[in-house]
Amino acid sequence: MAQVSFFISAKADSLYHQRIKPVKLRWTQAWRRQNKKGKVEEGGKKKARKAQKFQKAIVGMSLDDLKKKKAMRPELRQAREQAAKEAKAKQQAEKKKAASSKPAVPKGKADKGAKLPKGGGAPAGGSKNFKGKK
């Protein structure tokens, strides 16, 4: 259902139906607002408030744990992270070793179930730049 519009004047009606935006017309309030004409504000721009910083607990770590970790000396923190990395690398090496000791699956013929779809795709000739009839 279309929206019914009532206009103040025939001029406004005409411009609306010509799809001329009010912002483009110098005599409209919309144009004056966009180009900062008319009212002069005292005090200038409002100052934006600076965002307050606050800490929030994350999953798996409470706020107290976070504060303790932040307060820890950087050398100790680096040593702890290094130990964690080494443990992870050792674990991955063991995992890789276990995976390589398994017997390899013999390669045979491809599955008959994996057939290509019939038709519907692009022609085998590959006429990519086809325009109109040939």
Please give a structural write-up:
By secondary structure, the chain is mostly helical. Among the domains are: 8-37, no CATH class; 63-98. Helices cover 37% and strands 0% of the residues. It is built from 4 helices and no strands. It has helices at residues 10-17, 29-34, 63-71, 74-100. The radius of gyration is 36 Å and the shape is flat. The model has no long low-confidence stretch (mean pLDDT 80). It comes from Symbiodinium pilosum (Dinoflagellate).
List the helices and strands and how they pair.
Blueprint: H1 10-17, H2 29-34, H3 63-71, H4 74-100
Radius of gyration: 36 Å
- Average predicted confidence as pLDDT: 80
Shape: flat
| Structural class by sheet pairing and helices | mainly alpha
User: How large a portion of the residues is in β-strands, by DSSP E?
Assistant: under 5%
DSSP helix fraction: 25-40%
SSE pattern: HHHH
- Strand count, sense and closure of the main sheet? none
E-strand count: 0
Distance between the termini: 45 Å
Please mark out the parts with pLDDT under 50 across 5 or more consecutive residues, or reply none.
none
Oligomer: single chain
Number of helices: 4
Biased composition (Basic and acidic residues): 64-97
GO molecular function: mRNA binding; structural constituent of ribosome
Region (Disordered): 31-134
Keywords: Ribonucleoprotein, Ribosomal protein
Which descriptors apply to this entry?
mainly alpha; 4 helices; 134 residues
In brief:
This protein is mostly helical and 134 residues long. It is built from four helices and no strands.
